[in-house]
Amino acid sequence: MAEEEENKEPAEEADAPASEEQPPAPAEEEKQEEALAPEEAALEPEVEAPAAEAAEALTPKERRRRERAEKSAAVPARPQRSAEERQAERNQQRGRKAAVRRGRRERERAKARERSTAAEPTPARERQPSVQKTRLGVVVSDRADKTITVRIDITRRHRQYKKIVRTSNTLHAHDERNDAHIGDTVVVRESRPLSRTKRWRLVEVVERAR
Fold first, then answer.
1. Rounded average pLDDT over 149-166
2. pTM, rounded to two decimals
């Protein structure tokens, strides 16, 4: 009997390792996968973090350059053309634009003709004799022979600020008899050019200087 018990014990010991080496049940495998899933999910952000940091580290200029490169890569490249083909395309575009311009000009001319025919002809302007200007001023110089320099004082109201503004202008007048002198108040009238600077002629001396 003792020998039989001894023989059973090694057999049980031999059976134990065999039972341990058996593959786990499907339910146990699902439990293990569920236990590992949170750990893998926790590890995934750590792997993606460096890529996000690299994207944030890009400067705006570099980011725009990359976006342009992506867009240009998405657009199909145009086929290479020779210089003659490009020139022919330019000539074609110019021809189309010229045709558009010609049509627009023809329409404008037609409208102008319609307006001119619809409008009443303007009557001929009657020729009127020219009226010569006259100015009242003070003589400021009579050194030149037969020539006086007259200052014309102008007083007017400013059109926006309504303030009285005083200005003056000087002109040269022809004095045939050297009648006017400095300080005299004289009347001058517009005339034909008498010299390089003289366009006025003395009419009369209104008041003598005291």
1. 96
2. 0.41
